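Whiteboard transcription, Tuesday session. T.W. wrote the structure tokens on the left side:
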């Protein structure tokens, strides 16, 4: 295969270059660009390979670098033109440049194709017949080195056509135009299945060139045909790629046999055809509006486009149609920023009901009351259990209700009136009180056993609000799937292990295409360790340190997330989250909002 032979040849030459290149910064960068270019060529990304090699030659010209490093770059470009584009004339020019910079350079006959060998023979003959005259670049070259850069190094128009695209998938096209051409705009003419004539559309400033994305509604089998014209203010055609008579053709099929085409620094756009959904389930579908079509939000636009000002779909990160106009920030910033961190506040709403465990024990003088006076007994431990006065009852409902506190003793607690005290608080299997487990008064010398655990008394079940800080940091492993570590720090809590902190991992799935500028929707779920604590505020109590409901220490959380990135590295987030704590059960709803940064 041509491309495989080219790759093998290129790696041999790049290895030779690495052994001989000097430590100068320009040369090191040129070597790196060569390696990246041939990796792209190996993956059949001809567009990227050619662009990187062109950049390497421009860098050589700027840094007055010549000799072997320039020769190898030109040789690689020649192979890209011949093996990748089938352009023997373009390959000939670069082979001549390679020989003029390093006369001893050769193609390996064992790995090069016959077409490459034939063109290389022509290039050597051309060089020997004076083809190197007049090709010196301006500026001095390093000592002992020649620097031959042919006129084709900075091509008037650089465009590497895609080889194929999947049906009903947007087709991105990219072209670079030399400033010396004096052009002011670039027009694309394309025709798909069922189109009788070519459709004319302007290309948009994007990165270092101009770009357009043919709508998926015009990309059907068997092919899409197009040509590009570079024009000035008067509409005069200054240069073109393809023509109406001999257009460029991109094969369209249901299955891709090569890498999908993409704009520089961007992922390949996804299909406009949504996946199948189970019966009765409504699945999110991709947008179908193309460039220039009406929209109300980005979700309605095809992948790679944004809804500008809630009005029309435009190429994400692109500028105007004038050549050289400033492109959008997201185009310069490259792919979607995958590393993110979020900081915000949340309003928590925990459901409080009777029978939930308390985080702390009550004060000693708020456990038993005096049966005669109705006042709390200050020191119940030292009351003589053999006397009948005063009796030690709990302030239970119906008996001293005005003395009810936020603490409710567990069901295995006893007093002198309610030997088998039963409330909403579950027992802990430790029988306590002034009476024995059989209901008899404890004998002299048997110390009063105070209740060992309590629940928080609740006037009526309901949601209790609490404010907390929210933190989350993660990474998008793929375009749709992210892993992160989330934390919740409650601003008011009681006592106990991790009383105010909830910490745990979560997994997130993005339903909408990721974008550096626009709206995104996702869902997440994960595990937590720690507590969510709330104080339901029983009655009109003025207790100095009221009890909080204890929960956890394990938990599950699920929720949804709405992101809106104003720019590639900054935006906002909001979304509901549901938390379930166990084995001490508590159900909580969080409503966070905050800012998101991205790297």
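and on the right, the sequence the group agreed on:
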């Amino acid at each position: 295969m041509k491309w495989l032979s080219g790759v093998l040849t290129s790696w041999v030459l790049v290895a030779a270059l690495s052994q001989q290149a000097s430590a100068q910064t320009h040369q090191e960068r040129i070597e790196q660009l060569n390696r990246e270019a041939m990796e792209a060529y190996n993956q059949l990304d001809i567009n990227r390979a050619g662009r990187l090699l062109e950049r390497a030659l421009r860098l050589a010209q700027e840094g007055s670098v010549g000799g072997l490093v320039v020769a190898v770059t030109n040789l690689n470009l020649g192979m890209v033109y011949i093996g990748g584009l089938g352009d023997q004339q373009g390959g000939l020019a670069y082979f001549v440049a390679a020989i003029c910079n390093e006369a001893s350079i050769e193609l390996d006959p064992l790995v090069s194709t016959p077409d490459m060998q034939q063109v290389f023979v022509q290039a050597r003959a051309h060089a020997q017949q004076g083809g190197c005259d007049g090709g010196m670049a301006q500026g001095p070259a390093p000592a002992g080195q020649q620097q031959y850069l042919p006129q084709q190094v900075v091509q008037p128009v650089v465009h590497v056509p895609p080889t194929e695209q999947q049906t009903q998938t947007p087709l991105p096209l990219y072209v670079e135009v030399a400033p010396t051409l004096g052009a002011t705009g670039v027009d694309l003419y394309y025709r798909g299945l069922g189109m009788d004539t070519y459709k004319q559309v302007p290309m948009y400033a994007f990165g270092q060139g101009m770009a357009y994305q043919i709508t998926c509604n015009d990309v059907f089998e068997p092919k899409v045909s197009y040509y590009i014209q570079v024009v000035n203010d008067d509409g005069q055609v200054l240069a073109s790629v393809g023509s109406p008579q001999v257009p460029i053709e991109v094969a369209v099929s249901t299955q891709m046999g090569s890498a999908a085409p993409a704009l520089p620094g961007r992922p390949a756009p996804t299909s406009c055809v949504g996946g199948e959904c189970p019966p009765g389930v409504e699945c999110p579908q991709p947008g179908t509006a193309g460039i220039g079509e009406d929209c109300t939000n980005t979700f309605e636009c095809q992948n790679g486009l944004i809804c500008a000002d809630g009005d029309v779909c435009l190429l994400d990160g692109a500028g105007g149609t004038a050549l050289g106009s400033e492109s959008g920030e997201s185009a310069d910033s490259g792919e979607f920023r995958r590393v993110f961190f979020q900081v915000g506040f949340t309003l928590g709403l925990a459901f409080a009901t009777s029978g939930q465990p308390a985080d702390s024990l009550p004060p000693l003088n708020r456990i038993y009351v005096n049966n005669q006076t109705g006042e709390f007994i200050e020191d119940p431990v030292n009351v003589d259990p053999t006397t009948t006065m005063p009796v030690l009852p709990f302030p239970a409902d119906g008996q001293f209700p005005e003395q009810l506190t936020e603490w409710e003793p567990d069901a295995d607690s006893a007093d002198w009136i309610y030997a088998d005290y039963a409330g909403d608080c579950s027992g802990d299997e430790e029988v306590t009180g002034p009476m024995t487990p059989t209901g008899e008064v404890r004998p002299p010398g048997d110390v009063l056993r105070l209740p060992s655990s309590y629940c928080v008394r609740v006037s009526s079940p309901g949601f209790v609000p609490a404010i907390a800080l929210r933190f989350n940091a993660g990474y998008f492993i793929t375009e749709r799937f992210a892993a992160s570590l989330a934390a919740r720090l409650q601003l008011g809590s009681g006592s106990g292990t991790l009383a105010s902190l909830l910490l745990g991992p979560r997994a997130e799935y993005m339903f909408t295409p990721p974008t550096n500028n626009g709206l995104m929707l996702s869902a997440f779920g994960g595990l937590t360790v720690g507590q969510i604590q709330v104080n339901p505020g029983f009655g009109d109590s003025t207790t100095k340190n009221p009890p909080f409901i204890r929960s956890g220490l394990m938990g599950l959380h699920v929720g949804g997330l709405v992101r809106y990135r104003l720019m590639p590295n900054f935006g906002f987030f909001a979304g509901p989250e549901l938390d379930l704590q166990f084995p001490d059960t508590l159900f909580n709803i969080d409503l966070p909002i905050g800012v998101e940064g991205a790297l």
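Someone added at the bottom: The chain has a mean pLDDT of 82.
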